[in-house]
Structure formats: structure tokens, C-alpha cells
Amino acid sequence: MTDLEIAPGGSASVHVLHEGYVGRDGDDERVAGTVTLIIDGTAIIVVDPGMVASRAALLAALADHGPQARDVTDVVFSHHHPDHTVNAALFPAARIHDHWAVYAGDRWIDRDADGAELGPSVRLLRTPGHTAQDISTVASTPGDVFACTHAWWGVAGPADDPLDSDAGALHVSRDLLLSFATVIVPGHGAAFRPDHSASPPRLGWLRASAVRRRRAGAGHHAAREG
């Protein structure tokens, strides 16, 4: 894939292993990240192996798609908040990718993540906003282009990230992703399809000011969300 060729028709397959959330069952201290498996040729990639209620359930979900933990070749951190990173050690053979390096065993290999290819149809893109170091993992499948990203917490919002490091950069990153992605896998929720019938493409909740007001002060837990 090149900058002009992020389109469906690729060889990857994408499977959400765990749908994240911020608050659950009335408990604002519960938080989990969305964890995603991407398989592309010999690359077996786990994106954001962060906080989950059960590590055993996460590994069982992985095995349901064929790979075992030892088979994972690459782990991607969208950013360095612990709710997206704390379970990386479940995958002992994996290289770890972040915004500026690859970590393999005791080797720290400097490289800019932007444009880095992890498989024939998988690449990383810099998408700052939530943090200055955020990256997204983009995978082209036969029918879709998936973007695993923390540019959104979930389909329900918040429209304005109350924890963003740069609101302007976040909206630029969202516009970039919406220019090609047909499926968004957000940081803390189920995968969803943007509304590409709008011009420019957008999400339904971006039109709902009431949702923006309700979510903008996401409660005392928001300070912990990553």
C-alpha cells in the first residue's frame, strides 16, 4: 500500500478479540481497551493488548481464530497508556511497535512508525491527538479498510476527547482516517462504520450536541482513561 492506495482488496483479516469500555455496570473504575487481531500472510498482529477483565478469555478469543499466544509476531501500541499496553507480555515472541521504534528482545530499533509496513496489507500511520505519539494500524481486507485507532473512544463519543493532547491534531487525524477507512476499531468500543454518505464523511454522533455535552465531562474516571 502507498499513500494513494489505501483501499479494500488487501490480504489481511481483522478480528476484534475484546471490545473495550470506559465504565461498566455502574462502576466507573472499570476500564478496558479494545484488542484486535490482524492476520496478513505470516504476520500475526495484536493491536493494543491492554486492560481486560480476563486474560484467559483474551487468549481463548485469540485461539478461536487459530493462533496461540506464542504465534503472535507483532504487537502494536497505539500509544503508551497502560489500558492499551499492560498485557503485551502475553505474547513472548512478538516484536513491539510504537511511534518511534521496534522492540525485539533486548534490541531497541529506532524507526518512524508512519508508513511502516507490518504485512503486505497492514501499515502504521501517525495520528496524533489523543496523545502526541498516537499511531493507527490500517489493514486492507478483501472488502474493507480497517483503522485500529484511539482517534475515537467509541461510536457513541465523546465527540471531543476530554483527554486529548491537541484537539486540532486530533481532528486532522480523524479526517485522514475517514478519508479511506470503511471500518473504525476505536480505543474503547465495538467496531463501527462511518457515514460515508455525508460530505465529508462523519459519524452520526458528531451531529449531536447533547451527546457532546454529556460526554465531555466523562466523570471522575476520565482521568484514568488512556
Describe this structure in words.
- This protein is α+β, with helices and mostly antiparallel strands.
- The chain has one domain (13-224): 4-Layer Sandwich (Metallo-beta-lactamase, Chain A), CATH 3.60.15.10.
- The protein is built from three helices and 14 strands.
- It has helices at 55-64, 167-178, 209-216; strands at 13-18, 21-24, 27-32, 35-40, 43-47, 74-76, 95-97, 101-104, 107-110, 117-119, 122-126, 135-140, 145-148, 183-185.
- The protein has a seven-stranded mixed sheet with strand order 1-4-5-6-7-8-9, with helices on one face. Strands 10-11-12-13-14 form a five-stranded mixed sheet, with no helix packed on it. The protein has a two-stranded antiparallel ribbon with strand order 2-3.
- The longest helix is centred in the last third of the chain and has 12 residues, at 167-178.
- 42% of the residues are buried.
- Residues 204-225 have low confidence and may be disordered.
Features:
single chain; 226 residues; alpha+beta; Metallo-beta-lactamase, Chain A; five-stranded mixed beta sheet; 27% strand; disordered C terminus
Compile the SSE list and pairings.
Elements (H helix, E strand, L loop, with lengths): L12 E6 L2 E4 L2 E6 L2 E6 L2 E5 L7 H10 L9 E3 L18 E3 L3 E4 L2 E4 L6 E3 L2 E5 L8 E6 L4 E4 L18 H12 L4 E3 L23 H8 L10
Parallel strand pairs: 5-6, 6-7, 13-14
Antiparallel strand pairs: 1-4, 2-3, 4-5, 7-8, 8-9, 10-11, 11-12, 12-13
